[in-house]
Known about the structure:
The complex is a heterodimer of chains A (389) and B (325). By secondary structure, chain A is of the alpha/beta class. Chain A has twelve helices and 16 strands.
Amino acid sequence: xxxxxxxxxxxxxxxxxxxxxxxxxxxxxxxxxxxxxxxxxxxxxxxxxxxxxxxxxxxxxxxxxxxxxxxxxxxxxxxxxxxxxxxxxxxxxxxxxxxxxxxxxxxxxxxxxxxxxxxxxxxxxxxxxxxxxxxxxxxxxxxxxxxxxxxxxxxxxxxxxxxxxxxxxxxxxxxxxxxxxxxxxxxxxxxxxxxxxxxxxxxxxxxxxxxxxxxxxxxxxxxxxxxxxxxxxxxxxxxxxxxxxxxxxxxxxxxxxxxxxxxxxxxxxxxxxxxxxxxxxxxxxxxxxxxxxxxxxxxxxxxxxxxxxxxxxxxxxxxxxxxxxxxxxxxxxxxxxxxxxxxxxxxxxxxxxxxxxxxxxxxxxxxxxxxxxxxxxxxxxxxxxxxxx
Amino acid sequence: xxxxxxxxxxxxxxxxxxxxxxxxxxxxxxxxxxxxxxxxxxxxxxxxxxxxxxxxxxxxxxxxxxxxxxxxxxxxxxxxxxxxxxxxxxxxxxxxxxxxxxxxxxxxxxxxxxxxxxxxxxxxxxxxxxxxxxxxxxxxxxxxxxxxxxxxxxxxxxxxxxxxxxxxxxxxxxxxxxxxxxxxxxxxxxxxxxxxxxxxxxxxxxxxxxxxxxxxxxxxxxxxxxxxxxxxxxxxxxxxxxxxxxxxxxxxxxxxxxxxxxxxxxxxxxxxxxxxxxxxxxxxxxxxxxxxxxxxxxxxxxxxxxxxxxxxxxxxxxxxxxxxx
Lengths: 389, 325
Ligand SMILES: Cc1ncc(C[n+]2csc(CCOP(=O)(O)OP(=O)(O)O)c2C)c(N)n1
């Protein structure tokens, strides 16, 4: 029987890792990811898993060791946040180009500088073009589920891409909530084993990994990488469906909350969606038709789902917890471009919120909805929620 | 049992080289000697080598897609992280072996190759971390005293006065002023390690050290002086000739360190002046044409003498006194 655990999001992720029991975990601590590593290290110390843990001296080495391990043919995981991810970036790209199915929870935190330890999504957005699949999680349950789903997705032979599982720093990682944990055997059965085709450790079939790839091949290889991403897009629903069979929990590219008949829709990722659902219910009680779209899948970007969800709406407000200085905010720009050829285009508004862990209140979300409802949205004018003048 | 020449010859006659011909390193380059010798020793001793390489000449010239000069498993990741990368592969091996998923019964050994840029400079942290964690691997530094792959830029290994493109010798400044770091001492400072220096003029000394490094349970390190004939501005055929002089002049002493115990593996009966070595190197031509180098030569001579005396003393006081088990 599944059990309900009352704990932090970090512990939920660590439990998923424990149940997956990867061959190797190499990680370096950084707030707010640290408890994920600490919980997992305790599982190792107590013999609850027989994973080889590599306590590296930096995140750059964490990602480097993880690449070496996955290339060797081992199921490999790490986790990080913000500056740690920034330090890794060079190798984050390499991991994807080597088609290594690494799973990495990202406990989202603001990038320096100035230094800040709290939640925003600038870290995830830094690597949005790195070739990793990026999943986003609202709460403990989703963080737990997506870590398991990520493993199965990454290792699919047609995908073979690394996957990041994003959860909000402190809000999800350190907040206590309850989630349902599957039986260990059920998880192991679901993820199965990974049978790599060209592992470094197949001594009988020596393979060269990481050749120098010049103008005559690099381009084709990148096209193949894109094909892996296209396959990921097609296979994600299959993996979600299988997971639903196991748990009854239904995932999709987008979590659609009361959007069907909505006139005004908010788009937001991760934990803010919980507050947004509460606010949507408030408006609904007053008879105002609002709804919420929360992407579970950010990369590959589910364009079609956005088109279907947003065609014919009166207005769409996109909330970004990251900026792209001098350009449109990352989520906004993608949502807007996906609506380019729909028949009935909504008015659009871009709102940046919650940078560096700035608290997000229902009042702020109402501000965005009200701007939509009152016809006050200005296309491409970036507005800010909760910013002092 | 130390590997003898007969066994080695027999092995080479009956087997493919782990590191094959057909690579694109320059004629006369000394780096492939290190790659060839290290892997053949491992193979001849019955190990299965798994190789990692840092970005640099050896890497770019041996694995131009879709070709590879490596007949053994090989991984390249980036410039500064070959030690971390190989530490991941070695961890995977331990895990998969424990879980019964390794097909070969032969012992697998992990060998990382890095240039001096990838070792003294940008890769130092990664190497130090991997050594401190005690991974079972052999790190081979082919030291050509500069970033040669990218056209002779200065590294922490470049000796003072040698011509490089990032600290060229000019009228106002005599090139690089700093002495080389002592990478051997840095590695020895990790204590629980086997570390050695070697030179391309002494293949058997290298091979004996490689054997020890392979048999050492834990991190082992060998730095081999391996000239880049192009940017040292020496004739193509003279790499080993030049490193022989480096050894004979105390510029590059051949030493070993095993968990606290120092040993000099070659003690020339008489020493050549270091100037004789330096004068062979075209990379000093510019300095010598623009400056009076008497003072620098004297300073380097004094330095190598002091280094040698220090090594002799270390050898003596560390006898039978290992720091770690
Ligand atoms: C992070 C990073 N910085 C810089 C480079 C450019 N680069 C590639 S190889 C190299 C020099 C390598 O020098 P060394 O390690 O001494 O090896 P060698 O070329 O002499 O074989 C440099 C600077 C790089 N590839 N990656």
